[in-house]
Amino acid sequence: MAGKYCVTDRNVRKENPVLKSILVFGIGAGIGFSYGVLKEHKRMLPIVEEKIKKGDKFQNFYYMMLSWIRMHQKRRTFDDYFSWHGIRRIAVYGNGAVGQIFVKEMEGLETELSYIIDKKADTMRSKVPVFTLQQDCQRVDAIVVTVLERFDEIAEEIQRKYDYPIVPLDEVVYGSTLY
After folding, report:
1. pTM score of the predicted model
2. Quick one: residue 94, left, alpha or beta (phi over 0 = left, psi -120 to 50 = alpha)?
3. What is the C-alpha radius of gyration for the chain, rounded to an integer number of angstroms?
4. Residue 100: Cβ within 10 Å count
5. pLDDT digits (tens, 9 = 90+) for 9-67
6. For the chain, what is the largest distance between any 2 Cα atoms, rounded to a whole number of angstroms?
7. Which residues contact 153 (CB under 8 A, 6 or more apart)?
8. In angstroms, rounded to a whole number, what is the distance separating the alpha carbons of residues 18 and 33?
9. Distance of CA 137 to the CA centre of its chain
10. Three-state secondary structure call for residue 37
11. Is the alpha carbon torsion for 18, 20, 26, 29 positive or negative?
């Protein structure tokens, strides 16, 4: 026998349309909120991943520059790395801020900096010749890539044209502190 207040009694449900409205509203709000959270997560994910990538880039850059300073404190030069590996002539890929500092560091060293490779070669001024990757250049013992955040992509592009060893700048910096 169903009582007047029993949940299974159909009369109770009919008598309380407010409860039904609140329940429908609550379920709708929950679904809407969940949808909004998922949609915002999907929108924000690439932005967050990019920020993390940039953070990693700057952290890697920081540690490389710290090693570069330590190299100077130990009175080491990049010649230490290059001579250890039998490299006498190099080219540099990338003439941005880091590339220009590296090129300046190479002045007066035994290792010869033959040329710079950069996509914007036409607009650059340098004491060292600057070429694009499409131009033919003289043979070198290695190409040092100063654009570290895109090293794999750039190395692949260089390998399509040249069979020279390709070395990231951070390896040269870290290696120069060891020898």
Report:
1. 0.69
2. left
3. 31
4. 16
5. 555 545 567 777 787 888 888 888 887 777 877 887 777 777 666 667 788 888 888 99
6. 103
7. none
8. 22
9. 28
10. helix
11. negative
What CATH class has 76-176?
Answer: alpha beta
Q: Which tokens is 148 given?
A: 């570290």
Tokens of 157: 């592009």
* CA dihedral sign of residues 156, 147, 170, 135: positive
Tokens of 99: 């590339």
3, 4, 23, 116, 170 from 16: Cα distances, Å: 15, 12, 11, 81, 72
- Please tell me whether residue 166 adopts helix, strand or coil conformation: strand
Give the Cβ contact number of residue 129 at 10 Å.
15
